[in-house]
Amino acid sequence: PDRRTALMARAKTLLKERNAVLVAHYYVDGDLQDLAMETGGCVADSLEMARFGRDHASQTLIVAGVKFMGESAKILSPEKRVLMPDLDATCSLDLGCPADDFAAFCDAHPDREVVVYANTSAAVKARADWMVTSSCALAIVQHLKDQGKKVLWAPDRHLGRYIQENTGADMLMWNGACIVHDEFRGVELDLLRAEYPDAKVLVHPESPRSVVEQADVVGSTSQMLNAVTSMDAQTFIVATDNGILHRMRQMAPTKTLIEAPTAGNSATCKSCAHCPWMAMNALQGVVDCLERGTGEIFVDEPIRSQALGCIDRMLDFVK
Ligand code: 13P
Ligand code: SF4
């Protein structure tokens, strides 16, 4: 605890001295979330992180999350320094959608509007017409469908299927998955719901269909947090990375929050739903960024300016 207190204090001083702001995702360590909240930064979903970083006056952004979040911040604000606590923090969706293969997929289907999830590299975004996050994906694809457009979707197959089923849009899909949400299990969730019949079920749409089908609310991390604070229920079953429970408990201290079961729950671990890449973000990393300028994000200019188009289109849409 002493080392932690010292690192917290050091990080606070450095953020102030360097005129930097910490932009954190709900899945990172609770200390980093608290640090962000206590120093004028934010804890947010991926859409809000992008907007917050773009609109903040500070010229140095510390992005605690995974690489695509740092890249999106840099794409939106090339004049700012964007630093990350650990540059190796990536995402299975990003890894599973290499830019060259994706470009070939797009080339083979030139008649389709290319819609990519935020969880992709800058090079993949450079090829897209639209970027979406979990909080606005449904509305944007509905909009495209209403315009009579056919969609090429990448990379998350569960989110893609959820959107396809809810909009009826013609969607050709990449076969990617989030290694964290893919582990939630419908059968076990059904059993858990029988134990807590009054519980509301909150599900992130990167989860399999058998889990999404049982949801009272399907949404982004911020939308799930809003549900906990605004819904009348006392008990919630939460199907997303368990890092979010930190903020949920702070925002709704009297509510009962239960983690949804994962494939690994039964035998090997109690709560497997935690992203190994999000977990790489630590206080020491924040201090290192600020003290030594480690973890800086760079995006090559031609790719950056091409990728900006699809992000701006989304931000204009959700305005
Ligand atoms: P949101 O916070 O936008 O819902 O995204 C979740 C996610 O997968 C981040 O890794
Ligand atoms: Fe990627 Fe899943 Fe981790 Fe989010 S939780 S960063 S989608 S692997």
Characterise this structure.
Helices cover about 45% and strands about 15% of the residues. The strands form 3 sheets. A 4-stranded parallel beta sheet has the order 2-1-3-4, sandwiched between helices. It has a 4-stranded parallel beta sheet with strand order 6-5-7-8. With about 325 residues, it is of the alpha/beta class. About 50% of the residues are buried. The mean pLDDT is about 95. The protein folds into 3 domains: about 1-90 and about 280-300, NadA-like (Rossmann fold, 3-Layer(aba) Sandwich), CATH 3.40.50.10800; about 95-180, NadA-like (Rossmann fold), CATH 3.40.50; about 180-260, Rossmann fold, CATH 3.40.50.10800. It is built from 15 helices and 12 strands. 1,3-dihydroxyacetonephosphate (13P) binds next to helix 3.
Mean model confidence by pLDDT: 96
Count of extended strands: 12
**Bound molecule types:** 1,3-dihydroxyacetonephosphate, iron/sulfur cluster
The strand line-up of the biggest sheet is 2-1-3-4
CATH domain class name of the largest domain: Alpha Beta
Q: Which structural class do the helices and strands define?
A: alpha/beta
Question: What level of helicity do the residues show?
Answer: 40-55%
Order of helices and strands: HEHEHEHEHHEHEHEHEHEHEHEHEHH
User: What distance lies between the first and last C-alpha atoms, to the nearest angstrom?
Assistant: 43 Å
Radius of gyration from CA coordinates:
19 Å
Total helices: the number is: 15
CATH H-level superfamily title of the largest domain: NadA-like
Shape descriptor? globular
| Unreliable residue stretches | none
Q: What would the CATH topology of the largest domain be?
A: Rossmann fold
How many structural domains?
3
Tell me which CATH architecture of the largest domain applies here: 3-Layer(aba) Sandwich
Major sheet attributes: 4 strands, parallel
Strand content: 5-15%
Function: Catalyzes the condensation of iminoaspartate with dihydroxyacetone phosphate to form quinolinate.
Catalytic activity: iminosuccinate + dihydroxyacetone phosphate = quinolinate + phosphate + 2 H2O + H(+)
EC number: 2.5.1.72
Enzyme class: transferase
